[in-house]
Amino acid sequence: MNGHRPPIYTKYYDLLGWLLDRTAKFPKNMRFGLVQKIETVALRLLEQFIEAIYRKDRAALYLSVNLDLEKLRVFLRLSHDRHVLSADQLRYAIGAIDEIGRMWHGWVKPK
Question: What is the pLDDT of residue 110?
């Protein structure tokens, strides 16, 4: 990545590490359901941000990234409702996702 990563990438990478640390502690009975969904969406978002760094037409990814950010919010709320994320953890994660969403909108303005 040419030694330069945009702030959105760094912010998201840090959130992803935090998420993976949390999901590793979820009960085993959630491993093939909720954990798998969270990790799939979270890793796909990382791939999309990497792709956006190299693309001239980032707007082509706009809707897909927005949808995945919203899916991640919903899955994390569900995790809180299932008592595997605390209220503080949920607030932290949603706050970070919201900030990343604002960064995404500022970086990629659809035509």
Answer: 64
Q: How confident is the model at residue 68 (pLDDT cuts 50, 70, 90)?
A: very high
Return the domain boundaries, the chain. Answer: 7-107
What token pair was written down for 106?
Answer: 């500022």
Give the amino acid at 35: V
For residues 96 and 108, which has the higher predicted lDDT (pLDDT)? Answer: 96
Amino acid residing at 31: R
Instruction: Say whether domain 7-107 belongs to CATH 1.20.1440.60.
Output: yes
Tell me how far CA of residue 105 lies from CA of 16, 34, 65, 99, in angstroms: 19, 27, 10, 10
Calculate the CA 49 to chain-centre distance.
10
pTM, full prediction = 0.92
Question: Collapsing DSSP states into helix, strand and coil, what is residue 25?
Answer: coil
Determine the Cα–Cα distance for residues 102 and 107; give it in Å rounded to an integer: 9
Tokens of 36: 């798998």
96 with 17: CB under 8 angstroms? no
* CB within 8 Å of 93: residues ≥ 6 apart: 15, 18, 19, 76, 85
